[in-house]
Amino acid sequence: MTPDFVVVKVGGSLFSDKSRPGSLDQQVLRAYAELLAGLVARHPGRLAVVVGGGAFGHGAIRQRRDDDAFGLVALTQACFTVKWAWTEALRAAGVDAFPLQLAAMCTLEQGVPRACPDVLLGLLGRGALPVLSGDCLLTTEGELVSFSSDRVPEVLLPVVPGRMRAVVLTDVPGILRDGRDGGDVLAEVDAHDPGPAYDLLWTQSPWDSTGAMHTKLAALVTCARGGAECFILRGDHTVADLDFLFAPTADLPAGLPRTRIAGVDAAAAA
Amino acid sequence: MTPDFVVVKVGGSLFSDKSRPGSLDQQVLRAYAELLAGLVARHPGRLAVVVGGGAFGHGAIRQRRDDDAFGLVALTQACFTVKWAWTEALRAAGVDAFPLQLAAMCTLEQGVPRACPDVLLGLLGRGALPVLSGDCLLTTEGELVSFSSDRVPEVLLPVVPGRMRAVVLTDVPGILRDGRDGGDVLAEVDAHDPGPAYDLLWTQSPWDSTGAMHTKLAALVTCARGGAECFILRGDHTVADLDFLFAPTADLPAGLPRTRIAGVDAAAAA
């Protein structure tokens, strides 16, 4: 398929060291900001960026006390801090970027995100770049729950126009057959039969000790079942451009390892 | 009238010195947080707080460059910082407070705010306290414009259930007949005939050099025409409680100076 809209998620591990509170690699932010500026210039209103929580998000979740159900509110501030750092880097690169607090525009109903899209669509309509992240969301039962940045494409899917591609940039080149430091990447996941991919994660669990890849796979399977074409690949801020994100599936760089997750429809559209 | 819902706005001048960047009086925040905690305990789900931008908001507006229409985005971060400071103070006082980025949930259509109320109503439904503020809002024409915290009650009016009272706490006791340091407070403004009140602001302009009282009056006249009962009064964090905010109009403390702005309906309901 050729995407009409791309949502790119930049994993926290690419720009923040979880083990160091407040860690933010400004050089990496600047590099990604330049790359995203190029994309926005060529595809205005057709891109959204989602940033991982890095040290900020994990810190907020770790510090929560068990007896304080509402303590998760700290996550919304932590995520806003990260979004603002990205917004500043993007603005320095000439992008009309705008940070959006997901918790203010989205609730969870039986686990399914329900977003109010007005502001997001307004920003896209004027060619601006929405900067999104995970957050703590209120459920219809009145609970605050953590909502992974990997699931944000799921929020956008019913909202943005046309065919959506979701690309998750992380610190591994995809779902691996041979462990964390391996290079044997599972190329395709059928969203309607993801069992084999889950099996790989179970048997290779040491390289996914936090379950992060599990979360990504589940989120992207949901998106793909909804019609999106999804990719997991290694983020690299030193590339010349990210134009391939908007390329037709058949034209993606042959040498670029990635795991593609799509349904039958997306495959046919390719 | 007896309000079903109260939105209380705490003016920035009460807790922040505009002339000092980053100014935030934590002692005042703590005192208000305790007062608001009492109100939430007695009226769960029937209160929202709006905080002024203080030094943060004014700094963000001042620093904007004329050639950078999107530069106003800094206001959303500045306002979030203030909301978070209030959220922390309120949480320390035992309140389930949650900061909401207005810019993520509200657009302006021909100057009229259109909000997505799901999260706000969800928070109220579980007895939590939404912490709101002014912000930069996206218009349907794709512009970013500054939206005063004084206008936030206007956002809530069509959204919250029942009869709404909007109370603006500021550093003067109401609209004054005899200048800034005077004590002759205009007691009543008929929302359907606010001319005399505007006249007072024009002739007494030296005490309203920033036009702040103009903004308040215009915002509250709009609210009152929509059925709310509105007050402007001096904020005092040293009082024993703020229970009078929920009192029937007739039972408000006789000795408390204030300007009341209401339409005929609200007057009849009183």
Please give a handful of descriptors for the protein shown.
eight-stranded mixed sheet; homodimer; 9 helices; kinase (chains A, B); 12 strands; 270 residues; Carbamate kinase; alpha/beta; nucleotide-binding (chains A, B); four-stranded mixed sheet
Kindly summarize this structure in a few lines.
The first copy, chain A, has helices spanning 26-42, 54-62, 73-92, 102-105, 118-125, 152-156, 195-203, 212-225, 264-269; strands spanning 5-10, 47-51, 97-99, 106-109, 112-115, 129-133, 135-139, 144-147, 164-170, 188-190, 229-234, 259-262.
Mean pLDDT of chain A: 92
Strand count of chain A: 12
**For the record, what is the CATH homologous superfamily label of chain A?**
Acetylglutamate kinase-like
Poorly predicted tracts of residues of chain A: none
- Say what oligomer this is: homodimer
**CATH hierarchy: architecture of chain A:** 3-Layer(aba) Sandwich
- Number of H/I helices of chain A: 9
- Rg of chain A, Cα atoms, Å: 17 Å
> How far apart are the first and last residues' alpha carbons of chain A, in Å?
4 Å
As for the number of domains of chain A, it is 1
Please give the largest β-sheet of chain A: 8 strands, mixed
Order of helices and strands of chain A: EHEHHEHEEHEEEHEEHHEEH
Decide which structural class fits the backbone of chain A.
alpha/beta
Keywords (chains A, B): ATP-binding, Kinase, Nucleotide-binding, Transferase
InterPro entries (chains A, B): AceGlu_kinase-like_sf (IPR036393), Asp/Glu/Uridylate_kinase (IPR001048)
Pfam family, one (chains A, B): AA_kinase
Organism (chains A, B): Micromonospora cathayae
